[in-house]
Amino acid sequence: MAKNIAKPKGNRVSGNAGSQSDHRPPLADWRRETLARMRALILEADPEIIEEVKWRKPSNNMTGVPVWSHGGIICTGETYKNVVKLTFANGASLADPAKLFNSSLEGNTRRAIDIRERETINAAAFKKLVQAAVAVNTQSAKAKTKPVAKQAKSVKLLSGGNPQIAKADGDAPVQAYIAAMPGWKRELGEQLDALITRAVPKVRKAVKWNSPFYGIEGQGWFLSYHVLTKYVKVTFFAGMSLSPVPPGGTEKSKEARWIDIYEDQFDEAQFTKWVKQAAKLPGWMT
Q1: Residue 116 is inside which H or E element, if any?
Q2: HSE value, Cβ hemisphere, 13 Å, CA-based, for 87
Q3: C-alpha–C-alpha distance, residues 231 and 226, integer Å
Q4: Which CATH number fits domain 155-278: 3.10.450.50, 2.40.50.140, 3.10.129.10, 3.90.1150.200?
Q5: What ranges in 46-122 are assigned the alpha helix state H?
Q6: Regions in the chain scoring below 50 on pLDDT
Q7: Residue 232 C-alpha from the chain's centroid
């Protein structure tokens, strides 16, 4: 069983331990071997699990992050200088009698297992944790598939593929918008919504002008996003006050700044930092 270890600091070294055919920089032996060992346990736990690499970005040298899914993301595998981190997307919903989770314990959704050099974890308990994650995903998928699919099919897509959703307050219209986002943009929408909700637990949501809005009650809106043909545009209404200032903007937009997110080009860490900053600033009142 892994010891309770604080969240690692320092540069991340990305790599998919199961594949030696890609062009990733080699990892130190213990990290490669540890990730390979955990990958084998994940696949033993459920042979129907899907493996892929997502979120290729400069911070991981464009090598991406290994992701294991079944009915939704089960966990991701990341390698840092001193630890191998396995993050379970819905870890907070899982029973963990063996107390394998030792990192990211403060959130409402994710939980992580940090493994240091020469440390091992209970293989049987870990496989049960993976199986429990699959069960949670599949149960959630069954509950949501029919209403989401029906609703998404009835939504009209406007120019650029942007969903047309009636103006309304609350999480429901935002989820309807996300469900109707076309192609890879739907997964990005789910990721944006999850990151914002996790970074700002008391966030207020609404759909206005066919775009999801996020804000703080009594403080105004701090962010919205909109689907365009090749990317999703995320606007920070007080963008000029963020550090660093988001790159998108015009002379006419004195305060607002934005980012254009293309497929596989999303910097999750930087986005989260901007969200936390923006939520503390006076927002746009409508």
Answers
A1: strand 111-116
A2: 17
A3: 9
A4: 3.90.1150.200
A5: none
A6: 1-26, 145-146, 149
A7: 15
